[in-house]
Amino acid sequence: MLQRLYAWTLSLAQSPYALWALAVVAFVESSFFPIPPDVIMIPMIIAAPRRAFLIAGVATVASVLGGLFGYFIGYALFETIGQPIFDFYGKADAVAEFSEKFNAYGAWAVLIAGVTPFPFKVITIMSGVTALSLPVFIISAIVARALRFFIVAALLWKFGEPIRDFIEKRLGLMFIIFCVLLLGGFALVGLL
What is the model's pTM? Predict the structure, then answer.
């Protein structure tokens, strides 16, 4: 089923309404949908590199708005909607484990989940559950999602199709390594 959903999402990139489809997928991915917007974004940018940064901008705005919806799910609808989403992603225990410490490092959690392959929707919902400061959430989400989508857009704009394999298979790992080094550096100088 997930493979069919992935194929259907990928087919949206060929649609005349691809930019709207990207916005919808980026929105729902930030709150509950399992397929990332990169599935649509990458072929769209390869097909029209001159629109790379417009495409990244649409993905960023829609993703942050979807993140706000995820925050609302966590804040107001956790029992009915949020818990089943956490169960689906195997993160049901995350609420109990992270609730107490989440807000102390919530901005970092949003930043890291926003750029790495970790399901962003889990962090958006968790931010609502713990009532993370809304301005902190919004700023962190904007920075994280813009960083992720604009780096992908810039790489595709500059290198085109040859960089696609690297983006799809290794960019997530590069973001994880970057976040680990960044956090390690902050911990080393005593800022965390």
Answer: 0.83
